[in-house]
């Protein structure tokens, strides 16, 4: 059995599911999701259940089987950290970069981390693109917007603000992409397309309308509410090219597009604070500005 801990927003949950799904496929074991963290996490909710995923929710007994630990001890804890000790049956993410040891796991395991690299799951790309399809039928507003996207040389552009602005801790840690980044990204994409039409997705459409000026056709996508992220992502992935924010949400919006001809622009600086190595986060074919 592969149990993966889920936490964070939709994009984070998708990374966590993806590494678990890849390992379950490799080991021939069932995949279970630990969603217990959302019981005390008011900022986000479990969203993967709205997609066609192939996993069950882990029971309390199944989670406890892995998570029973002895009381902490300062000296022992320091020693464990020094030797990069892992509790039997639990594999915790050791760094932000890709860890090839994950792919060598052959027995039942509990995965605890964010796992933000396609290197964990690129081998099952088609499987994941099917799993990450909405399970419900598309409504009329989304269908109309999708038709517009499919009929144009469409570029998704994501402006992530929300808690990146309003939450002091999150703002300090992540920060937002600058207008200069978006201007440079638009210029790059425009130079590689003939008739670009930019479809802008944002959790702060008022700010976008007031501040983001593009000298090309632009549509502000506002057909979905804050609890309908899977449908914004569904529209995003249907665009031909992508300008993403420093956000796992638009990372997936770009990655789910299967076209080998897509152009994807990502910010060079992913975090406000240094110290995290993001070299394995952005696929090699994407452009960082």
Keywords:
globular; 2 domains; single chain; alpha/beta; 11 helices; Rossmann fold; five-stranded parallel sheet; 11 strands; about 290 residues; about 15% strand
The beta-strand count equals: 11
Q: Gap between N and C termini, in Å?
A: 41 Å
Instruction: Indicate the proportion of strand residues.
Output: 5-15%
Main sheet strand line-up: 8-7-6-9-10-11
Shape: globular
The CATH architecture of the largest domain would be 3-Layer(aba) Sandwich
Write the layout of secondary structure elements.
Elements: E1 2-5, H1 10-27, E2 31-34, E3 56-57, H2 60-67, H3 74-82, E4 90-92, E5 109-112, H4 125-131, H5 140-150, E6 153-159, H6 163-166, H7 168-173, H8 179-191, E7 196-202, H9 205-211, E8 218-220, H10 229-237, E9 241-243, H11 248-255, E10 264-266, E11 287-288
Parallel strand pairs: 1-2, 1-5, 2-3, 4-5, 6-7, 6-9, 7-8, 9-10, 10-11
Helix pairs in contact: 1-11, 10-11
What do these coordinates show?
The protein has 289 residues and is α/β, with parallel strands linked by helices. The chain has two domains: 2-130; 140-288, Rossmann fold. It has eleven helices and eleven strands. The protein has helices at residues 10-27, 60-67, 74-82, 125-131, 140-150, 163-166, 168-173, 179-191, 205-211, 229-237, 248-255; strands at residues 2-5, 31-34, 56-57, 90-92, 109-112, 153-159, 196-202, 218-220, 241-243, 264-266, 287-288. The strands form two sheets. Strands 8-7-6-9-10-11 form a six-stranded parallel beta sheet, with helices on both faces. Strands 3-2-1-5-4 form a five-stranded parallel beta sheet, with helices on both faces. The mean pLDDT is 92.
């Amino acid at each position: 059995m592969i149990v993966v801990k889920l936490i964070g927003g939709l994009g984070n949950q998708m990374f966590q599911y993806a590494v678990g799904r890849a390992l379950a496929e490799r080991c021939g074991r069932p995949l279970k999701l630990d969603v217990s963290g959302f019981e005390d996490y008011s900022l986000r909710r479990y969203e993967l259940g709205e997609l066609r995923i192939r996993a069950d929710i882990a029971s309390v007994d199944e989670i406890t089987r892995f998570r029973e630990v002895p009381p902490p001890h300062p000296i022992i804890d320091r020693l464990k950290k020094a030797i990069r000790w892992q509790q039997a049956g639990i594999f915790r993410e050791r760094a932000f970069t890709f860890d090839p040891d994950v792919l060598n796991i052959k027995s039942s395991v509990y995965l605890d981390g964010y796992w933000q690299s396609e290197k964990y799951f690129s081998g099952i790309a088609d499987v994941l693109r099917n799993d990450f399809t909405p399970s419900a039928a598309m409504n009329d507003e989304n269908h109309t917007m999708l038709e517009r996207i499919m009929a144009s040389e469409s570029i998704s552009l994501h402006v992530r603000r929300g808690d990146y602005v309003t939450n002091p801790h999150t703002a300090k840690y992540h920060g937002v992409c600058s207008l200069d980044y978006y201007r440079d990204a638009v210029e790059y994409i425009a130079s590689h397309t003939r008739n670009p039409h930019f479809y802008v997705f944002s959790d702060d459409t008022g700010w976008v309308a007031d501040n983001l000026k593009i000298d090309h056709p632009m549509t502000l996508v506002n057909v979905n509410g804050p609890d309908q992220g899977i449908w914004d992502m569904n529209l995003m992935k249907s665009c031909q090219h992508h300008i993403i924010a420093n956000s796992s949400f638009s990372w997936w919006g770009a990655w789910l597009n299967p076209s080998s001809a897509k152009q994807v622009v990502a910010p060079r600086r992913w975090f406000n604070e240094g110290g995290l190595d993001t070299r394995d986060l952005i696929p090699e074919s994407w452009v960082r500005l």
